[in-house]
Amino acid sequence: MAQLDTREKLGILADAAKYDASCASSGTAKRNSRDGKGLGSTEGMGICHAYAPDGRCISLLKILLTNSCIYDCHYCINRKSSNVRRARFTAEEVVKLTIAFYKRNYIEGLFLSSGIIRSSDYTMEQMVEVARSLRENHHFRGYIHLKTIPDADPELVHLAGLYADRLSINVELPTVSGLAQLAPEKSAEQIAGAMGDLKSAIDDQQDARRRYRSAPNFAPAGQSTQMIVGADGASDGDIIASASGLYDRYALRRVYYSAFSPIPDASAVLPLQRPPLMREHRLYQSDWMMRFYGYSPREVAAATDDSGMLPLDMDPKLAWALKHRESFPVDVNRATREQLLRVPGLGTKAVASILTSRRWRRLRLDDVGRLTVSIAKIRPFLIAADWTPARIDNGADLRLAITPKPKQMELFVA
């Protein structure tokens, strides 16, 4: 490998890290610097160029330790047989970069992943050393997310959890058959076992914290995972079922979806084109339906078409409502929270405001309209003090009425 300076390595390894979608965090431990030392305290929040639950936009240094790898997964641009420029950071270089970027106010935390070099244990040791040095040598109080390796020694994963806020293990693909076809060197059973062990360790540590105040934190922001969408033949229905099972079995904080991107010198088993980015967006919306809106996986899957795919021209919540017209309209002044959450166009905050406001007065359509972006989407699905929707029995007619009309784009716009 040619000798590269730090700037060149950063250019290569930061670009290689863009395929990792799972760099958001929430629910981590709060840390402060009241003892007169430590840096990077952000009150437990740190999201890579996104928004924290309190609305702040904050960022992580998101890099790979190396893009060299001993595995040859078909879908991965960093696979062993890929013709890409390689680079590798030492643990000390990653630590210095993190501290330097933080002191320049560029970042508030670190997301570190890696290809596998030498062995899983060796790679995991290097990643743990980065986190250990930041915490112990530099008293770094910011957010750290480590992408762990399923077949690494469990003791190394345990050490990682003592230093990192969140750990994640990628399931790679939605189905076992897809993993066997595109990443035959990886084992679905091994990945599942590692995720189960990590869940048990997090549960044990939480129990210890309830019993003993002095017990150390272990991955206080929990674990997450990521799966690639569009590399195999899995339908959206398959992906929804897989994600639901992961949430139930491993108490994950998040399942992230990454749309497959065609890579140079690709294997013949891979598709020639990437899936529409809107498909990834619709899957995230379906994920929120299960996590925050009370839909079961079977109900979310009911929003798919005959081929098991979510519609791209509307969100899955609206698609579900159009297929279940018998559940609507609902009375905004009488409906339960669960019923209101199923109204297309109403989010969790809007529903909370409705429940609070209607204690004091009967709500009109204009009152609800102030809480949402599109009143046109809402009107067919609810009854207000001054509004009762016209009956539309044909779902196709209703879909046509509430779907935004196509507009001719202008060539010359001021």
UniProtKB/TrEMBL annotation:
Alphabetical list of SUPFAM superfamilies matching this protein: Radical SAM enzymes, RuvA domain 2-like
- Which keywords does the record carry? Iron, Iron-sulfur, Metal-binding, S-adenosyl-L-methionine
Q: In the UniProt record, does the keyword Iron occur?
A: yes
Q: Which domain of life is it from?
A: Bacteria
Cofactor needs? [4Fe-4S] cluster
Q: Which Gene3D superfamilies match?
A: Aldolase class I, Photosystem II 12 kDa extrinsic protein
Q: Which InterPro entries match?
A: Aldolase_TIM, DNA_rSAM_put, Elp3/MiaA/NifB-like_rSAM, Endo/Exo/Phosphatase_dom_1, rSAM, rSAM_sf, RuvA_2-like
Residues forming the Elp3/MiaA/NifB-like radical SAM core domain are 59-286
Against CDD domains, the record matches this protein to: Radical_SAM
Q: Which NCBIfam families match?
A: rSAM_link_UDG
Q: What protein name does the entry list?
A: DNA modification/repair radical SAM protein
